[in-house]
């Protein structure tokens, strides 16, 4: 099913199975490729990967939009039907998020909840709870860093560095991973809570020469107008080329998904 990506708001594919949310991604490569499956040959060599996805990342931007916060108001409390209602024309599948196992529990992690009765429970995103949840997520991943190969590989360059630098590199790597699932505004707010003084010192000691120094070493006259160097665009995968050719005419911004119908 199509849902808005938490980081970009653009359409992305997800699956709900056994009450859990999964992200679907297509992996392909350049050139023709096929697979032998049993006694048949599948001409499409692309692979579809389905990986577990924390529903809270999906909920944050939806709730952020739905509460309609203003400088003078914290926004509205809404019931589940109001948050994931069928009035969403571009993402009708959003209503299926109510089928997630323990959806009320996920909402309570980042929302202020009013529970006047079992049938009248309402939710409103709370910024402090969101930030608290994100920091806790950071702590959990940092503590389990050594068990996640992709994260370990991301800081392989720090093996010979002092422990202080390596510790900061671990936190920085986790921050990048979590920020990849957040909008720019939430990623900026989260990153403001973390500083990396040892890595900053290391970077300043190993930075490239200044432009004036570079000119002296290369013999280039910096007063001359530099020639524009053609930058080659990276090759796109088959899936990326198909997406680039797709028409985006009539695509609405995310904030329009929840607008009241006239």
Automatic annotation (TrEMBL):
<dbReference type="Pfam" id="PF17745">
    <property type="entry name" value="Ydr279_N"/>
</dbReference>
<dbReference type="GO" id="GO:0005654">
    <property type="term" value="C:nucleoplasm"/>
</dbReference>
<comment type="function">
    <text>Non catalytic subunit of RNase H2, an endonuclease that specifically degrades the RNA of RNA:DNA hybrids. Participates in DNA replication, possibly by mediating the removal of lagging-strand Okazaki fragment RNA primers during DNA replication. Mediates the excision of single ribonucleotides from DNA:RNA duplexes.</text>
</comment>
<dbReference type="InterPro" id="IPR041195">
    <property type="entry name" value="Rnh202_N"/>
</dbReference>
<keyword id="KW-0539">Nucleus</keyword>
<dbReference type="Pfam" id="PF09468">
    <property type="entry name" value="RNase_H2-Ydr279"/>
</dbReference>
<dbReference type="InterPro" id="IPR019024">
    <property type="entry name" value="RNase_H2_suB_wHTH"/>
</dbReference>
<protein>
    <recommendedName>
        <fullName>Ribonuclease H2 subunit B</fullName>
    </recommendedName>
</protein>
<feature type="compositionally biased region" description="Basic and acidic residues">
    <location>
        <begin position="214"/>
        <end position="233"/>
    </location>
</feature>
<dbReference type="GO" id="GO:0032299">
    <property type="term" value="C:ribonuclease H2 complex"/>
</dbReference>
<dbReference type="InterPro" id="IPR040456">
    <property type="entry name" value="RNase_H2_suB"/>
</dbReference>
<dbReference type="GO" id="GO:0006401">
    <property type="term" value="P:RNA catabolic process"/>
</dbReference>
<feature type="region of interest" description="Disordered">
    <location>
        <begin position="207"/>
        <end position="247"/>
    </location>
</feature>
<feature type="domain" description="Ribonuclease H2 subunit B wHTH">
    <location>
        <begin position="57"/>
        <end position="151"/>
    </location>
</feature>
<feature type="domain" description="Rnh202 triple barrel">
    <location>
        <begin position="3"/>
        <end position="54"/>
    </location>
</feature>
